[in-house]
Amino acid sequence: MILAFITLGLFDIIDILLVALLLYQVYMLIRGTVAINIFVGLFLFYLMWLLVRALNMELLSSILGQFIGVGVIALIIVFQQEIRKFLLLLGSKYNINQKFTLENWFAFEDRGIREKEIVAILGACEHMAKSKTGALIVIAKNSDLQSYAETGQIVKARVSTSLLESIFFKNAPLHDGAVILANNRLLAARCILPVSDNTNIPGSLGLRHRAAIGMSQATDSHVITVSEETGNISYVMGGKIKVRISIPELRSFLEGDFAGFIH
Ligand SMILES: Nc1ncnc2c1ncn2[C@@H]1O[C@H](COP(=O)(O)OP(=O)(O)OP(=O)(O)O)[C@@H](O)[C@H]1O
């Protein structure tokens, strides 16, 4: 009966597709976090309101409508963290300051890392894995990591195996936290990274690995971890972690992901 009154135009189809795309993006953003349960709850609540309205159940629809009326404010409060993460990702991907620097326009500097830096990282990771020295290395891609670098100690030094090893040496003053590599330089050490709240991460992975995953979700950077407990090397990108990788595997990941930057 109801369907007989529904007319579907081209714009309605575009509208539905856009809403589907939006919902998919929201799902991708909060997938694996506790926020997904809240989102599903709110979505069901909204569907119920649409249903009771369509069935002309006046009393129930006006009660639910009161909640829906303040729904946007409630959404902002409930998804405060996710909205912040989303805006941060959007802002750092399309950072205006970064796009209009002279370096970018005239390509004076490379964004990521080159072959020499890859060799230095591989050497350091190999030694640190053998000696079970914990390490957390962030490699910038397009996102601006300056705000993360400022949580630690700005270094701005040439990347070398010995520098990386001495930073992560157990009793060294800068060993805690992460190092950030950007523009072929070791930009900063002892940096604090955002920790992922993904509930699907195995319990065996502690804060170092969660911080690596969190950083790769918040930015487009790639992260290498060396476990202090096991000496295992992991490679993290786009919120996904590859655990227990070998040095040749790490080389092929780095060369593959930063191929555009190798000279
Ligand atoms: N948010 C963070 N940002 C940067 N570094 C962090 C963060 N959280 C933890 N770390 C680093 O990770 C170190 C070890 O943390 P933890 O033992 O919980 O990690 P893990 O994943 O179990 O790693 P490991 O296998 O090396 O023990 C900390 O001492 C610190 O240097």
UniProtKB/TrEMBL annotation:
Keyword Nucleotide-binding: yes
Gene Ontology BP terms: cAMP biosynthetic process
Origin: domain of life: Bacteria
SUPFAM superfamilies, alphabetized: YojJ-like
Gene Ontology molecular function: any one: ATP binding
Catalyzed reactions per annotation: 2 ATP = 3',3'-c-di-AMP + 2 diphosphate
InterPro entries the record matches: C-di-AMP_synthase, CdaA, CdaA_N, DisA, DNA_integrity_DisA_N_sf, DNA_integrity_scan_DisA_N
Keywords linked to the UniProt accession: ATP-binding, Cell membrane, Membrane, Nucleotide-binding, Nucleotidyltransferase, Transferase, Transmembrane, Transmembrane helix
TM annotation in the entry: 6-27, 34-53, 59-79
EC number(s) recorded for this UniProt protein: 2.7.7.85
Domain DAC: 80-249
Pfam families xref list: CdaA_N, DAC
The keyword Transcription regulation is assigned to this record: no
Assembly information from the UniProt record: Probably a homodimer.
Function, in words: Catalyzes the condensation of 2 ATP molecules into cyclic di-AMP (c-di-AMP), a second messenger used to regulate differing processes in different bacteria.
Assigned protein family: Belongs to the adenylate cyclase family. DacA/CdaA subfamily.
Protein name per its UniProtKB record: Diadenylate cyclase
Organism: Ancylomarina longa
